[in-house]
Amino acid sequence: MNRKVYRARNIQQAIANIKEELGSDAMILSTRKIPKKPLDPYAKTMFEVEAAIPQYSDSETKKQDLAAHKNSNDQYIKLSKGEDPLIGAIKEDIADIKDMISIAGFGNGMQNMACNHFESVGILASLLRTGVSERLASTIIQEASSLMDETTDQGSKIKSLKKYVMRQCLNQIETKDFFNRNNSSGVPHVAAFVGPTGVGKTTTIAKLAALLSFHRKMKVGLISIDNYRVGAFEQLKAYASIMGLLCVPAFSSQDLSCALDRMKSMDMVLIDTAGHSHFDKTKIDEILQLIKTDFRISSHLVLSVTSESIIMKDAASAFSVFNPDTVVFTKIDETKRCGKILDQLDNVKLPVSLIANGQRVPEDLIVPDKRQLLKIVLGKGT
Ligand SMILES: Nc1nc2c(ncn2[C@@H]2O[C@H](COP(=O)(O)OP(=O)(O)O)[C@@H](O)[C@H]2O)c(=O)[nH]1
Ligand SMILES: [Mg+2]
User: What is the CATH number of domain 189-377?
Assistant: First the structure.
């Protein structure tokens, strides 16, 4: 196996040179960042990549070649029990290269960031893969880098950076178990769910009503002010009937005040609103007039993570007239890119009260704490 070392200003360039010279069969044996010479003001950080083309005439030669590697003194041939160290090292390099390639797919800002903070490559790539935006990922990495512990060892640097990235992500997250309240003041807590059409407001209300009445033993009433969609009230009523809960429609402020009067002995009243396009300001205003005439009503913004980030942001902006108390994210089961939740939280600056992770009523509802939400955001399950 003929080895050759390539130097370049960044890893992508080195890999491009290797491909050009050795072809795409070349194997990457190691990558290294060469720090600037501290006394040379013109010095630039360089990257060194060692590559080779395996030259096997037959499988016997291949075996011999690998065996020769095992006996040599290079950095991969530290013989230990378990996985062949050569395979382990190659796997690590492949992971690094995959990270570099995935970063190369993003804008120049990301590539510069990866070159300036070489220890951040893997972490940056994972953040981008979860769906966190380039802007937020680079802010998080920069802030975490500035807090990092002093160390020159690459392994410790990565560990330290990971710790601070987690801390920065955690700082972006606020959660609130908003619906965990009893009727201590003698009046029910009234909560309205607002958001675009089809995000899962009615389904989430049904799940929450079950959680509150069956697990938290609260008295729950439901009101639907959705008079736009055919069958909207019937949908909520059907869930309410199964759970044995009172559910009434209200299409005017008089209806609403009558309905609230009927429910004054409840602990919690959940209001289902009509979903409207966030471009339809008139219809959004109609709901606003109806529910915000009564200032006891809290509101909760519902967003589906299956929507594009920009759509979620526009919706959050249109529904901000309700001055929501919390945000609810739905349909996390339908995407692997829950990192975009972090961007939305950075935008709305609201605590997350609920997460919906499926269509099953009442099972697919999570009342997350901060760490649980961080796991969801980073795609590490619940
Ligand atoms: N996969 C998935 N589907 C959901 C979730 N929540 C709601 N849905 C589905 O989304 C569709 C619209 O839900 P609905 O509650 O009527 O939305 P609304 O218009 O906001 O009231 C229905 O088919 C629901 O079953 C969820 O968390 N995951
Ligand atoms: Mg609905």
Answer: 3.40.50.300
